[in-house]
Amino acid sequence: MTKKIAVLPGDGIGQEIVAEAVKVLNVLKSDFGLDVEMEEGLVGGTAYDATGTPLPDTTLDLCKASDAVLLGAVGGYKWESLPIEVRPEKGLLGLRAGMELFANLRPAILYPQLADASTLKPEVVSGLDIMIVRELTGGIYFGQPRGVRALDNGERQGYNTLVYSESEVSRIGKVAFDIAMKRDKRVCSVDKANVLECTEMWREVMIEEGRAFPDVELSHMYVDNAAMQLVRAPKQFDVMVTTNMFGDILSDCAAMLTGSIGMLPSASLDANSKGMYEPIHGSAPDIAGQNLANPLATILSVAMMLRYTLDEPAMADRIESAVNAVLDQGKRTADIWTEGCEKIGTDVMGDAVIAAMRG
Ligand code: NAD
């Protein structure tokens, strides 16, 4: 049956990078038999300008009716002074909540060809391939009660609540174990079980969930040690699974191990593996409209979509191999360019990936 993809370019470089990813999808359709249809929607500042809201109902309806969403990025200088409830970023949060995307998958992959882009020694990071699975709709970012209250002594007190139910932990655990089965079969669950009761329970539930996956090796690590290990010896990890806040911090740290923000895709999945796929970077207003943006993170997001929602792993492999081949050819957008390589623009990079896919 034909699958449907909602395409939301968004703002800034979102327009340019999504155009390249759509070119890749069209080649998969015409040359390799991918059975999908695509429909565009508005989100972010562009949607606000056109409709007065960063997430029009028509866009949310389109996304809910689709199997997968391909998103560019939202935000930009133009919309920074808007009231917070209509800022572009609200469009993104509304999509995540409206589609119940509770599992955020953030791979940190360092292509050996780009080992010099990292601030860490090449031998520490070359060939790095970690998958961070972050719980996205629970934990301290959403827990109640929350707020700032006045104490009897007149002082203000800020408070938030870290809360997880067992079912929230087991469903994110299942996502992590399922992914590990497709990789090196190792899961490291990151918590702070020595201090926080909530994450002590997290650890117990992970152990229970892990019993259904006897082939996967489960380990546990306190978050402070995990942060240290990520910069000391990151290649020890395969899949890391953790809470919303710990995942927020650790996934940015892992992304920066690679040193190339324009290379990293992400996925956010619901309970039925329906998902939103997007690069981890923002709308880069400083380079928007100049054909300078690196489209590879967005093209690699399409590969994740093929693997995790559309169940077309061979096509995902084809994209990833093509990206590898293009890097081997020495082709680089400005953000990953080094002496001796060929500097190319956004559109030529998209064309190069397509040429390599056709082989
Ligand atoms: P950013 O990721 O947009 O840019 C950070 C730096 O990285 C910039 O110098 C930019 O030029 C560069 N960069 C980013 N992506 C690149 C690419 N594909 N190719 C080449 N260079 C790239 O982060 P920022 O500057 O902090 O934020 C800009 C806007 O994006 C803000 O409005 C922010 O709110 C928004 N934002 C959106 C998302 C999202 O849509 N998911 C994520 C982060 C930030």
Q: What would you say this structure looks like, in words?
A:
It is a single chain. The protein has 359 residues and is α/β, with parallel strands linked by helices. The protein folds into two domains: 1-102 and 270-359, Isopropylmalate Dehydrogenase (3-Layer(aba) Sandwich), CATH 3.40.718; 111-132 and 139-259, Isopropylmalate Dehydrogenase, CATH 3.40.718. It has twelve helices and 14 strands. It has helices spanning 14-32, 45-51, 57-64, 88-98, 122-125, 166-181, 197-210, 223-232, 244-258, 296-308, 313-328, 346-358; strands spanning 3-10, 36-40, 68-73, 103-109, 129-135, 147-150, 156-159, 186-191, 217-222, 239-242, 265-269, 275-279, 331-332, 342-343. It has a ten-stranded mixed β-sheet, sandwiched between helices. Strands 6-7 form a two-stranded antiparallel sheet. α1 links the parallel β1 (3-10) and β2. α1 (14-32) crosses α10 (296-308) and α6 packs across α7. The radius of gyration is 21 Å and the shape is globular. The two termini are 28 Å apart. The model has no long low-confidence stretch (mean pLDDT 96). The chain binds nicotinamide-adenine-dinucleotide. The site of nicotinamide-adenine-dinucleotide has 22 residues, from α4. Catalyzes the oxidation of 3-carboxy-2-hydroxy-4-methylpentanoate (3-isopropylmalate) to 3-carboxy-4-methyl-2-oxopentanoate. The product decarboxylates to 4-methyl-2 oxopentanoate. It is found in: Cytoplasm. Its cofactor is Mn(2+); Mg(2+). This is 3-isopropylmalate dehydrogenase.
